[in-house]
Structure formats: C-alpha cells, structure tokens
Amino acid sequence: MVCSTHLPRTVAAVFTGGALLFGGCASTRLDAQWADPQTAPSALRGAHVLVACEAREAVIQRLCQDRLADEVVARGGTPVLAPSTARTGGPVGDEQYLSAARNAGARAVLASTVTTAGIQPRTGVSVGIGGFGIGSGGFGAGIGVSAPLGGGQATTGYAVNSRILDAGSGRLLWTARASTPPSGNVQLQMSELAKAVFGAADKANLF
Fold first, then answer.
1. What is the pLDDT of residues 109-150, one digit of tens each?
2. Is residue 83 a contact partner of residue 109, using CB atoms and an 8 Å limit?
3. Domain 28-203 belongs to what architecture?
C-alpha cells in the first residue's frame, strides 16, 4: 500500500479519520513479542530449526514456510521443513512439531500460524480486524487499513503468530505477532511478515 496526500477529497477525509484512529498509515508491523529471560544469548546460533507454518491455503502456507526458512539461513541456522503430516489441515499440536524436530535432530521448533487480518473490497476504504489464537490459551488480533485509488480485485491483509520452542524440553523460548495491511502482493506480504518477526527475534538475541 502507498500512502499519498493526492487523494480525492471524499476518500482523503475517510482515510484521514482511519489514520487518526490507528496512528497513521498502515504498514507491516510487529504487534507484540515475548521472550523467556532465562534463554541464553545466541542459543540458536548455527542450530538446526524445524520450520512449520499453518494456513488455510496451501500457497500461503508454502510461502510463509519458505520465507521463514530464508530468515533462518540468513542468521546462520539450518532450516528443517516440517513434514507434510505436521503442517496440513487444522491447527497442529506442539507435540507433533516437537517429535518431528527431535527425529530430525533439530534444536528448536519455529511454528507459525497465518490468518487473515482484513479484506479490502474493490473500492473504498477498508478497516479489517482479525482474531486468532496464540499458542495455548492466548488471543491476538491484526488490523489492516487501506485506501485504494480505483477499482480492482479485493485484497487481503494477513497476521502471523510465531513461536520458538526448545525441541528437547518443549519450553517456549519466544513468541511474536506481526500483521500487514491489505495488499495484492501476497509474496511481499509473507516476506515482510517473516522479516518483522525475525527482527523481534534478533532483538531477543536468539540467533
């Protein structure tokens, strides 16, 4: 999405209201993160990490998994893609991921869930709010605001909730949530979401 001051007056007025409500032009952002303070610095440096994504659509799942794997490689780690039996269908329990990680000799599990976080219709300004689960018992939401300049296909915003588990003990080491506004470029959205959550992992000094 491109923010512009050259909008028709009626669109600009509505968009300005949305900007005031949500604090400015929408963009991919880190919504929240948590890290276990007992985790040793650089605990995953050079480690094998099982990477898994859950999504309603196979293409979203694959793009998410590939982009997260790229970020693991960029930090000197070795991604191990979760087997198909551990990343299709509905939500997968952590124990299934942990078992796959141990079998593959991975030190940790990076599991992510992608959900929609707002849909932009063909015309007009859209504000979308999507709710989704976080691990066990938590809840989060993603927000998307967009103001198109013309017609076209409806676009979708996404939110990703990621967590890293110690493969040996199953202990939660870190979790973060990021969201992106509606866009027609899904590949770019998945890339930006992966960079957002890994930026948080960098601040937590996991790698």
1. 999 999 998 777 765 555 555 554 545 444 454 555 554 444
2. no
3. 3-Layer(aba) Sandwich (3.40)
